Amino acid sequence: MDQGQLQKVAVGTAVAAGLAAVATGRLPRWLRVAVVLAAAVIAFAAGLWGWRLFTAPKTLTVAAGSLDGAMPRTVSAVAARLAATGAPVRLKVVDKGTVIDAAAAFAAGEVDLVIGRGDVGDLADARAVVVVSNAVVMLVTPPGSKIEEITDLKGRAVGVIGGSVNRRLVDALRREYDLDHLKVTFRDLTPADAQHALASRQVAALLAVIPTTEQYLGMLRGLFPSGKQTVGLVPIEAAGAIAALVRAYESYDLPKGTLRGAPPVPDDDLTTLRVPVYLLARKALDDDTVTALAKAIMDTRRELVAAYPILAEISAPSTDKDAFVPIHPGAAAYFDGDVKTFFDRWGDQIFYGSMLLGSLTSLFAAAWKFMARDAGHSDNALARLRALSETVEATGDEAAVAALERQIDRILHNALDRIAARDPDAADPAALMLATTRLEHLIARRRAALAGAPQPAASAPAAGAAPAELAAPAGEPQHA
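That's the TAXI family TRAP transporter solute-binding subunit sequence above. Prediction below.
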């Protein structure tokens, strides 16, 4: 057996000995008090750790991306505000650069949340928390253009701001209007390239999908030359049919004067498409966590809307069962006003906690008894008397016999005190009397043997007989 195995055996033996000592109660009082106090400290520390873990704010990672970087900045502002107000849910923003990359990170399980469009990425595992904004499809023509309908684009090119982000939208327009037959082409453009493409007539119109906030509308107007003539907007009259086939989109009437007020552009409500931009969470995310997140975001938007106007567009997702992106149950509970009360949420814990408290009370009482028990009384009186019966024959003189009698007296006094105090561990009085009677009989025989007199009969005493009567057979002298 090597040294390592010897150490393991030694440690195991020590632990077993300690457990055995605790179980049998054969420890000095100070050590028993130390054991109970150590157990109490460990229990308190475990409870404190559990409480800190339970009440600690939960941090969720959220992926965001946009061409201009505005969305990650906005979400970062929301995250900072949640931290400043001590919200139970915190956000850690991961800037992925584009909507497509953010959606890919969410689909790969790298993040808990994502700011994503309904027409981008794999949304099978996604559930809506809030609608961040609605991006409206705008097909804009430069000033002086004669293009009034999509079919007027025959043989021309359309610049697509955002490129691959809007690939699904372009495919839907191609199918619905048979644009391949009309030889309409699409070119992916960045905002920086759009002005040059328009000025050089490389494209006849721009396709942009943007929120209808002044920030984004101003950026779109800035791509076209200013002058007396105004830009034009081409309606998507088949918006309803497209939305029916591709449920990520919704038919939408763009209000008069949205792009420009005087003269108004459009000059009347314009039929087009829009796509919601969601804050999406994994469907497996805890309901209570999502409820707290939805509430925190709705509270925070009111405080930040002045600095970030896009937050004014935050709204509740659709609660319809057949919604394209289902709402998360935790968010649905918040928006439906069905948030669990304290007792709804913790009723079971309170019930079982009361049962646990009763058990802990019993455990505390047992621990107190364990600490308070006198080590001097730990030995059973009957066992000690039985042990003395084995030493009677070894006594060699009257002094030793008298010492045994004094020891018996001390054991009896202690046992009677415990009986009077109703100690549950005290010896049974009847058994104590029988054991004492037997010892007196043995002592009487030993005295007779030491004095050279005939020994008393070795028969057992009759139950219930008085000790003096059983000390020696009839006819023999009684000893004090």
